[in-house]
Amino acid sequence: MHDKIADKMEFPPETPQPNIYPLRWETKSSKVEEIWDASLREAWNPKDLPWDTFDVSSYSWEEREAIAYWWTLLSVFDASAPPVFAEAFIKTYECHEEDAIRRCFFSVTRDEQNHEQMCGLAITKLLESPSPLEYEPKTELGRRLQKNARWLYYNGGRYWNGYKQAVPKYSLAVLFSSFLMGEIAAATIFKQMSQSCEELVFQEAFRNIGRDEGRHMAICLSLMERDYPKLSAEEKSIITKQIRAGYLFLSAVLFEPPAEFWDLPEDFIATQREAEEIARQAGFGVPSFDAKKDNWRAAMLNLKAVLDKYDTPFPAIPEVDITGQEVTQADLDSADIIPIF
Ligand SMILES: [Fe+2]
Ligand SMILES: [Fe+2]
User: Fold this and answer.
1) What residues sit around ligand 2, an ion, with C-beta below 5 angstroms?
2) Does residue 149 contact residue 275 with C-beta atoms inside 8 Å?
């Protein structure tokens, strides 16, 4: 029961800070204000894409299941993005972040909801079912892909637990490096896909999603510019571990899933490669193994350039030939995973 005090004093006591809502609308960085405006200007609706030009019956069932599998793989990351960013959005209020930064995180949450919706629209159309995990596969490959999808789903669920523990524990500055990693990765893959897909509806979707991810990247970069000169040595060492964790987690969609994080059956990668080849032949431009490796490496080097600027050690990523500080499995077991897509 709350004891009434309003009749005992003229003004209320101070509210302990920080509380969930800042009554303050200050923005110091004009860059984030511009990004917010761009997010409104560039808003799009997945339902308004040229769906009428997309004739699923022109594809075989094997092709449909192979393409739907790629969207399912993507949605393991994108379907967790809205709640993941909503959590970060709440944190910007708890930390009394600048007004335009709070709005930017709101825009990211909204954008990610669009990306998730796009995954759902593509999958539903291709499989004639809203559920890639529950629909009845039509081909033998489809059956194996559904098994893959179930394992991806299981592993993706493990990430959320780590994330929920990490967000209250770390400063936004630490969180941003992981966010940036996901955004660089995302911007990279969607740009590629928009250029290598033959189906108009996918080209347009990937162009829109890639543009959104570019804004997300810019948000992270402008916040890092503000906060990174003040990082402590301890924060820097957490960031180094988080980048390695992010590499392992995001490799599943950007490259191939490393056994260090991903607990998957032995035939998983072979089945996935088989489906990717079929999707590629059908005009759905999943990059080849070598192209993925080159792109992922380039994205990591981009991130490394940003961290180098702030004297934050980059982890060794021997998988894509990047040398750096060794991060062991034991380091990662004790870390909570924060990367975001
Ligand atoms: Fe996204
Ligand atoms: Fe994003």
Assistant:
1) 213, 216
2) no
